[in-house]
């Protein structure tokens, strides 16, 4: 099209008759319009592609997981449908001595994250790792002190359990009422993240109590969501 436009321009310079000039001018104008339209389409396509690449996917915060332990490792199990299809570098875990942060990038167009802070005891960052399984991420936290028993996952769960035990040890203490009071105090004095996690933990404990299940703070218990703190 560019070559055609140049040729029409050259012919116009040589044309003598008015009718010939008008015909060449019209033909050149049509070619010029087509060139401009193609340039606009190309620019818009490039802008859409750039905007798409710059758009950040919404991060879905995960709060549910199970955990277990052996003499050497504390193991977390996070259910996430289809995660085994992700590339290895799309599922990362950042560790510190007392925390971990899982990030799953672009799983069915979404990003997922899980943070667990204030681990009860220190972990060996260098020897901690994760595995991808069918619909699950398994995280293996290497205990800094092998053989050390973790009765809960995080220090905040430990403090909650101690407060609960102290409240229930009082004369005429009602276990359920003691737990309610403790969680209310923690909720009222906590930051936004703490309040969200406590509210979730309390909802879970009420649901499990309704079905006659244990509402304790251990693995699988109704207070498990507090591990995110």
From TrEMBL:
Domain SGS intervals: 138-229
GO process annotations (BP): heart development
Domain CS: 60-154
InterPro entries: Calcyclin-binding_UBL-bridge, CS_CacyBP, CS_dom, HSP20-like_chaperone, SGS_dom
GO cellular component, one term: nucleus
Single GO MF annotation: tubulin binding
Protein name: Calcyclin-binding protein
Annotated organism of origin: Drosophila rubida
């Amino acid at each position: 099209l560019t070559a055609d436009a140049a040729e029409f321009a050259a012919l116009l310079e040589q044309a003598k008759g008015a009718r010939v000039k008008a015909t060449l001018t019209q033909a050149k104008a049509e070619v010029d319009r087509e060139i401009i339209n193609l340039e606009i389409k190309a620019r818009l396509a490039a802008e859409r592609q750039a905007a798409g690449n710059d758009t950040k996917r919404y991060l879905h915060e995960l709060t549910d997981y199970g955990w277990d332990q052996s003499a050497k490792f504390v193991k977390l199990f996070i259910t996430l449908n289809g995660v085994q299809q992700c590339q290895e570098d799309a599922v990362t875990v950042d560790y510190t001595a007392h925390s971990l942060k899982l990030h799953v990038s672009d799983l069915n167009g979404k990003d997922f994250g899980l943070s667990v802070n204030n681990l009860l005891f220190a972990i060996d960052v260098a020897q901690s790792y994760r595995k991808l399984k069918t619909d699950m991420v398994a995280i293996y936290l290497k205990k800094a002190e092998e053989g050390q028993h973790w009765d809960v996952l995080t220090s905040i769960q430990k403090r909650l359990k101690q407060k609960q035990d102290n409240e229930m040890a009082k004369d005429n203490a009602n276990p359920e009422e003691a737990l309610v009071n403790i969680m209310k105090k923690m909720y009222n004095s906590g930051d936004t993240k703490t309040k969200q996690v406590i509210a979730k933990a309390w909802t879970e404990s009420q649901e499990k109590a309704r079905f006659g299940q244990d509402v304790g703070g251990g693995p699988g218990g109704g207070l498990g969501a507090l591990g995110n703190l």
